[in-house]
Amino acid sequence: MKTPILSLFLFFATYANAGFWYKDLEFFAMENFSVEKKDGNFHIGFDYIIENPNWYAIVIKPSMLRLEVAGTDCGLVKIEEKIRLKRKTKASYPFVLKGDGSKFVKSAFSSIWSLMKGDGIDFTLKGKLKAGVAVFKMRWKMDYTYSMSFEEFLSLF
Q1: Taking a C-beta distance cutoff of 8 angstroms, is the pair 142, 67 a contact?
Q2: In terms of C-beta density within 10 A (0-12 exposed, 13-18 middle, 19 or more buried), how is residue 68 classed?
Q3: 92 exposure class (CB count in 10 Å sphere: 0-12, 13-18, 19+)
Q4: Could you tell me if 128 and 142 are in contact, meaning their C-beta atoms sit under 8 angstroms apart?
């Protein structure tokens, strides 16, 4: 009788101190942008530099994020494939976002004014990434803005 009570006590004591077991992911930069249009949807590819300070690998699962281009809402975009983040590393990981092509075109036209002023275009991703280790699932808040220069924007086409 003492063993189950002791094990439950240890489980809850450990779970209450969850900050000991995990640390938040850190998102640093986006690189190597590419945009493609397939079947009425747009596919934005980029490399995201992420630091995983945890002592275990984390798998980012398919998630939905909100994309804004130059302050104009492009709607929800989806990360379709799992991405495995290595433990205790800061590395570049390939992401592909899939979204509605009509909303992306509208935001691209509204961003022309920003380009003409020389301000560049801001790509903002917001939402919660679904991630996990084995059967444990977590959500990491993501709010990152990438400022793309005029030259980078032209290189997409």
Answers
A1: no
A2: middle
A3: middle
A4: yes
The tokens describing 83, both together, are: 């991405």
What is the SS3 assignment for 143? strand
Distances in whole angstroms, Cα of residue 74 to Cα of each of 26, 54, 104, 110? 24, 33, 5, 11
pTM, two decimal places: 0.67
Cβ atoms 120, 46 nearer than 8 A? no
What pLDDT does residue 90 have? 93
Which of the residues in the chain have pLDDT under 50?
Answer: 8-9, 12-13, 16-18
Provide CATH code, domain 22-155. 2.60.40.10
